[in-house]
């Protein structure tokens, strides 16, 4: 997490290590009754009263806060539990002191939240941190005091906290810690909102051109990248780059880091030439500073960009150059070496050299089977996912499924990886569907959808496509009502994210028309299909095969609607026949000719 008052070159602090969720701290056992007391006698009440009175000591809060910190550092005798008890008691004591103790109260709450996170109890840390930021965050300006926002800022610039920099530091740290905790729970929208609030406070205290502001801008840009919000990420990254170029020496390491992030953003937006320019400049900076491993890592990114530009020879050269350096520096069994093998496997698959592609996949799998000590599980899981995609393209679906199951096992219990796990489960759902295991496909899709709902990613195009795929699995299981609900939700999401004329949205329209027809809602199906046909004619022309297919489907529906509506009921197997089955059947008027689109 970027610091408000740290040195210019201080990196963001790492997120707290994940742990298993555990129960809240047990309360101290009440004193046992004396032998002369009946078992039915009420427990004595003076003890709690005496405990409450002890909190009135003005020196108790700071003392308990110091005890909490010492217990955290020592880690002896249940250090985390003792530290949490000290921190919570310190917070109660400081709260009773009232005015003048706000900073120490916020600090004790930060310590308690950090302990909760260290124990893996991130959800318990959220209300503690919300209380901490409420204590020290300055109130918003009165309505009408601020100037109108300009085109680069949606909200007016906040004023500096008049109580001093310590208050701003406490508020900034609290909001950033709260953002990190939301991120560990997969709540990216809430996380980004907290980071944004922290950035506002930091800019008000330090000015918007301070190098420490640049660090926070880059930190927030990385969060936007994780949330696939690339336009917002690009704005923040450009601001960080401008500040670092203003305050740092030419070709600084900070500028190189900004350029690597900018290249990632531009690559995601399809601006490969712009990404390549930033990567080359970053590589030159790393070469000048003697950072050979960083140069090799950038060479891999350059190879990826060349691959996207179909400049295959240059991509191979970049990959091989990086592979040589990484093998020499880190050894043959390091996951970064395996990641280069994966990139080469992907390149050779795209160029039709399937034997070389599979050979590099096998080399990478040997590394992932016995990786070097300290290898990150998410790095290995990412490599397995990429290899699975290659095996899927090669037609080896069973092997691809095994690799995805290995990747899922590595990440399924890791906090902060919900989106990645959802992606793995979605890919598994597709594979299950392709091999005809529709119940397993629906289960995988359902789990992925639940994770994305919980993490707040219900407004992405990926979520809409996932709902559509789950609907197709429900069709194969003859769960018609559930499929209709999923297609309707997918339509809403994709209309908002992609527009009504996007190919993915049109595919959902076609599926929804088919399901409405299966439910007897022929008029609704006709209305949807007429829109689909109109858009396809405008975009593809009237002679396109897809347009002809939609015309035949619409003609079939119109003919059905013009009859007496007492059509012969057909089985669900005919109603939801697959594309391959339809191709083999007669071209007569059967509902299997009205199919679904993935």
From TrEMBL:
TPR repeats: 296-329, 381-414, 506-539
InterPro entries associated with the record: TPR-like_helical_dom_sf, TPR_rpt
Classification via PROSITE patterns: TPR (PS50005)
Keywords in alphabetical order: TPR repeat
Residue span of region Disordered: 1-62, 136-165, 560-598
Biased composition annotated in UniProt, kind: Basic and acidic residues: 560-571
Keyword Ion transport carried by entry: no
Gene3D superfamilies in alphabetical order: Tetratricopeptide repeat domain
SMART domains cross-referenced by the UniProt entry: TPR
Record protein name field: Nephrocystin-3
Organism listed in the record: Panicum miliaceum
């Amino acid at each position: 997490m970027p610091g408000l008052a740290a040195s210019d070159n201080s990196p963001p602090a790492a997120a707290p290590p994940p742990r298993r969720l555990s129960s809240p701290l047990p309360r101290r056992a009440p004193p046992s009754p004396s032998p002369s007391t009946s078992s039915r006698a009420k427990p004595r009440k003076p003890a709690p009263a005496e405990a409450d009175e002890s909190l009135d000591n003005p020196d108790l809060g700071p003392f308990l806060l110091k005890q909490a910190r010492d217990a955290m550092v020592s880690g002896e005798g249940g250090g985390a539990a003792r530290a949490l008890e000290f921190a919570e008691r310190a917070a109660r004591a400081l709260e009773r002191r009232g005015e003048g103790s706000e900073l120490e109260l916020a600090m004790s709450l930060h310590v308690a939240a950090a302990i909760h996170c260290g124990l893996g109890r991130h959800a318990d840390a959220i209300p503690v941190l919300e209380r901490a930021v409420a204590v020290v965050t300055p109130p918003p300006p009165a309505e009408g005091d601020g100037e109108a926002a300009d085109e680069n800022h949606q909200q007016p610039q906040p004023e500096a906290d008049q109580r001093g920099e310590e208050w701003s530091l406490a508020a900034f740290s609290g909001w950033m810690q709260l953002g990190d905790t939301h991120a560990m729970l997969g709540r990216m929208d809430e996380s980004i909102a907290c980071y944004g609030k922290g950035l506002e406070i930091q800019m008000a205290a330090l000015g918007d051109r301070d190098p420490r502001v640049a660090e926070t801008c880059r930190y927030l840009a990385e969060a936007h990248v994780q949330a696939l919000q690339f336009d917002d990420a690009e704005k923040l990254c450009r601001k960080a780059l401008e500040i670092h170029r203003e305050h740092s020496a030419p070709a600084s390491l900070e500028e190189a880091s900004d350029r690597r992030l900018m290249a990632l953003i531009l690559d995601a937006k399809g601006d490969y030439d712009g990404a390549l320019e930033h990567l080359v400049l970053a590589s030159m900076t790393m070469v000048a500073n003697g950072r050979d491993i960083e140069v090799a890592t950038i060479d891999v990114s350059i190879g990826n960009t060349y691959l996207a530009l179909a400049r295959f020879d240059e991509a191979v050269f970049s990959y091989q150059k990086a592979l040589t350096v990484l093998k020499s520096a880190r050894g043959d069994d390091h996951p970064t070496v395996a990641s280069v093998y994966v990139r080469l496997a992907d390149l050779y698959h795209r160029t039709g050299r399937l034997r070389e592609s599979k050979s590099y996949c096998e080399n990478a799998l040997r590394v992932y089977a016995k990786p070097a000590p300290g290898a990150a599980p998410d790095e290995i899981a990412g490599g397995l996912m990429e290899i699975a995609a290659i095996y899927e393209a090669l037609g080896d679906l069973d092997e691809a499924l095994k690799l995805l199951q290995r990747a899922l096992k590595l990440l399924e219990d890791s906090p902060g990886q919900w989106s990645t796990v959802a992606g793995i489960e979605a890919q598994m759902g597709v594979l299950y569907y392709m091999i005809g295991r529709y119940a397993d496909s629906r289960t995988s899709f359902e789990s992925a959808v639940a994770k994305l709902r919980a993490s707040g990613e219900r407004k992405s195009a990926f979520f809409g496509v996932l709902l559509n795929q789950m609907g197709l699995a429900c069709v194969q299981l003859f769960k018609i009502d559930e499929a209709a609900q999923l297609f309707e939700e997918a339509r809403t999401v994709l209309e908002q994210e992609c527009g009504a004329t996007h190919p993915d949205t049109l595919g959902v329209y076609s599926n929804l028309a088919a399901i409405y027809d299966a439910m007897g809602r022929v008029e609704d199906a006709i209305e949807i299909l007429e829109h689909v046909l109109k858009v396809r004619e405008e975009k593809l022309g009237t002679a396109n095969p897809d347009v002809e297919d939609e015309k035949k489907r619409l003609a079939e529906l119109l003919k059905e609607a013009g009859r007496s509506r007492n059509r012969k009921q057909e089985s669900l197997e005919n109603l939801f026949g697959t594309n391959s089955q339809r191709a083999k059947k007669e071209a007569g008027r059967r509902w299997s000719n009205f199919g679904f689109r993935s």
